[in-house]
Amino acid sequence: MKHERCDAVGAIVKNSKGHYLVLYRLQQPQGLGCPAGHVEEDETRVEAVTRELFEETGIRAKKTACVYRGVFGTARLRCKRGVSKHKWSIYRVLTYVGKARRKEKREHAFVKFMSPKKIREYANRNDLTPLWVEVFRQLKIINGRTNHT
């Protein structure tokens, strides 16, 4: 099926230490990011973010809240479906169960909780995916200029 624009979701999970759940993508878009993926035809965005979070990290979202919506993408970065622009809905996971682990070994180098300071270091090395630079800035998880600006 040919898509012009896909609906996509992402999950922001913060633990009791103030660290955020991140993973390092080995495939495009390569770099540090949060669990994310496409919304399938037969599911809601909340169902999609819950599924993607569990598929990628083993964590099950119990309660979520949408904290960001927007269209994001560039012509040079295309997803597996061949689409460059995505309509994003980012959810903060308010409650969850499970322990973070790397479930998709071919797609991720690691899955772990990381401090905002460490996430900013990835951003300053241009090793934080562009979507997550935008989202983390909007949500004030990282502040100020990075090398992406």
Automatic annotation (TrEMBL):
Keyword Hydrolase appears in the UniProt entry: yes
Positions of the Nudix hydrolase domain: 4-135
Pfam families tied to this protein: NUDIX
InterPro entries: NUDIX_hydrolase-like_dom_sf (IPR015797), NUDIX_hydrolase_CS (IPR020084), NUDIX_hydrolase_dom (IPR000086)
Keywords: Hydrolase
Source organism per UniProt: Candidatus Harrisonbacteria bacterium RIFCSPHIGHO2_12_FULL_48_16
Superkingdom of origin: Bacteria
GO molecular function: hydrolase activity
Name of the protein described by the UniProt record: Nudix hydrolase domain-containing protein
